[in-house]
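As a warm-up, study this chain.
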Amino acid sequence: MPDTHETLGGVPREEADLIAGLPRYHPRYCTDVWAGKIAHIAVQLSNGAAVLRLELPDGLFIHRGVPRDYMQTHHPEVGGFYVVHLSGHESYLPATVFAADWRAADADEAASIEKELAG
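Now compare it with the structure written out below.
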């Protein structure tokens, strides 16, 4: 059984898949998060789950599947941000709120963390 206390870049191993590929952001008042701007939402009508197409600062896109509970709780919209907290909690923030409270992590720091997470 893997050691659940082991971390990669300060992130528990079991949460590493959630943040893989997402840029890191520093907050004004709380812990760092990883986030991507929502470019498209494809909802699966059969079960209410969705696939979010996330735009990264470098212009690339990645996809994240989210369950129906996420969609019902957060009501994400295109242009807002899919956010993963250090605890692994997934949330949503409108673009204006995200821009007011978060700034991108230093590029060297972010590259170092991505390299460590990649193994």
